[in-house]
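A reminder from the course coordinator: this example appears on the midterm review sheet, so study it carefully.

Given structure:
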């Protein structure tokens, strides 16, 4: 009778464990499907990189355009800003993500020691395997940041490349950048499941302020003869 009771207890415990595993798998699937925070790493790199490339390059070009009417000077300045900014974004993202990778790898080693000393079982082993698959990739993040920055920086460069008239060139650059800011703000809001209007307004106003401040200060310094 004791053996029969023990067998029944083991069967019940096994069934409960299987139910818990099934429930956890369903929850994990729902989380992967609906948790937009999982996109945070690549989304942050892409959106910030594109916005930074767009705004910084456009601001550089507008600043130079405030004191130099030559289209060649303006375009060369934008190109230099594109190359320098893409390299800076890539290096910064690589260092940041690599630091995060070191922290997560160290935590995984501590978890492994805990499993080996305390006996973890298959569930902990499966969890460790999933954690390895989710580790951040520094090279991927760096490449994404550099590419996104370059794509953003291309917008003002293309807008200024084929226009000789000074005032028209500035107006076209500002208009093209404004349109791109709206697109990037909307795209970031949609991918991140955030409020669209607030995201677009925040990105657009920030870009306008950056261009206006750069243009105004450069114009002021240039007119003072410094």
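Designed residues:
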């Amino acid at each position: 009778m004791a053996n029969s009771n023990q067998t029944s207890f083991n069967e019940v415990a096994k069934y409960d464990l299987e139910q818990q595993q099934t429930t956890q798998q369903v929850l994990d699937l729902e989380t992967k499907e609906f948790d937009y925070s999982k996109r945070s790493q690549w989304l942050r790199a892409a959106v910030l990189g594109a916005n930074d490339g767009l705004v910084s390059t456009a601001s550089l070009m507008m600043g130079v355009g405030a004191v130099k009417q030559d289209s060649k000077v303006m375009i060369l300045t934008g190109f230099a800003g594109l190359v320098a900014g893409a390299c800076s974004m890539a290096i910064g993202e690589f260092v940041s993500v690599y630091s995060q990778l070191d922290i997560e790898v160290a935590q995984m080693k501590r978890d492994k020691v805990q499993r080996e000393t305390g006996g973890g079982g298959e569930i902990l082993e499966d969890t460790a395997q999933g954690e390895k698959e989710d580790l951040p990739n520094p090279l991927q993040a760096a490449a994404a940041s550099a590419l996104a920055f370059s794509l953003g920086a291309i917008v003002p460069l293309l807008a200024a490349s084929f226009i000789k008239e000074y005032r028209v060139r500035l107006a076209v650059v500002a208009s093209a950048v404004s349109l791109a800011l709206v697109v990037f703000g909307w795209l970031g809001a949609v991918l991140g499941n955030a409020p669209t209007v607030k995201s677009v307004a925040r990105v657009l106003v920030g870009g306008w302020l950056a261009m206006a401040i750069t243009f105004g200060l450069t114009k002021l310094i240039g007119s003072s003869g410094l």
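The mean pLDDT is 78. The CA atoms of residues 47 and 188 lie 6 Å apart.
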